[in-house]
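Q&A log
Question type: sequence-to-structure
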Amino acid sequence: LLHSCVHPSRGSHEVSSWPSLDLLGPWRGERRTRDPQRRFEAWDEPCARRMSSRASDRTWDVVVFGATGFTGKWVVRHLQKEGKEVQWAVAGRSADKLAQLREELQLSEDVHECVVDASDLEGLKRITERAKVAISTVGPFMKHGTPLVEACVETGTDYCDTTGETPWVRDIIDKYHEKAVENKARIVSCCSFLSLPFDLGTLMVVDHMKKHLHRKCRSVLAVIGDTKAGVSGGTIDSAFGMLSGDAKTAASMADPYELHPKSGPPKGPDRGNLDTIFFSKELKCTVGPSLGALVNSKIVRRSNALQQNAYGDHFSYDEGEMKRNRVMGWIGLWTGKVAMAFLSMGWFRNMVQKALPAPGTAVGTIGEQGYCNLHFIGKTEPENGEASATVLGKAEMKMDPAYAGTAKMVVEAALCLALQDEELRNAGYPEGGVLTPAASMGHVLIDRFNTRDFMKFFME
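Response status: OK
Response body:
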């Protein structure tokens, strides 16, 4: 369910002899070289002032937190391909693991290592005030994610993550949205397979209706088509963490408008997610429920609300996945319901989790051998006696969407914030707040993906 959340590194060690910032001990600010006898004071004084996340004198374009985790390593691999045009750093709590990461992936000496614990707010602030954008893959986010968000808000640093934990996203909205607006920090969660392509694909369909049909959108149905992917232990750990939440967490997850702004525009007609099997005449296939809708639908609805219901006052979103046939669809639906009922019991959940992949491991297809196809069926609002019109959109991914693909998504989102800030501001996107991919970067990010060879968005 929660594609792309990873466990944090465990343990704390001495700083390695590679270039690094030691943030576990007193802040000395030394930059360390391979020769432990040779030091020069590159970071003598921490920044005493808050810089805008768009300040030109920030040291790094991007810093990756959780770089030694499963998804974090994929993020690092993608950043390596950007060359020296992008200045970046890696961060984690274990200096030994960061040194191993450098050796394993042959990182350039220009890439700094920052040793900091995920709970060390002051240490996190010393790093984020030197970066334009922070990427976080440190999950479960409900346990480990909040201090980094607070650090970014306090230092006016943009932020992207790979969470799919909507109760946690609701919590950071309540705690930090107003302060993020004030400090011009763009906090953009769910920049992974949950929920970036669904959010951007919906935006593409809605804007096509406005520009070419001059009508607002009544509904969008996103359907996961042919896909080859994998799952990691970190993802499973985060999913089980949400299932073991208290009554407040369970109630929050059940609300289709969980992420709706409290003082936002009127809510749409949605009362829940797809819970049946049907035949789609547009796609000519059987469609059934998708677990990802528990997350993606809430991000899409928040995108619409943040734009004052620009999609449509009566806009609704639903999501499903292709099934082999109706029989297999109904079997899968009821098997899922029974499984969820049993997983709500702690003893059964613990027993099942022990048999599944542990954090740091994965099963299935990971990397460029994977792929994914998403279909978007949009219907316009009927106007002036005219029937609703239907439009079709698509997103194609050329690698496994859950890990290699998720890493690519969050990297491109972060680089969009870091390198295309002026373009975003000129296009009228918000400069701060707890946002969504569509509401913060929208078509600028879609265009960025369409110039890459990993994921393409297009109308059919």
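Response note: The mean pLDDT is 84.
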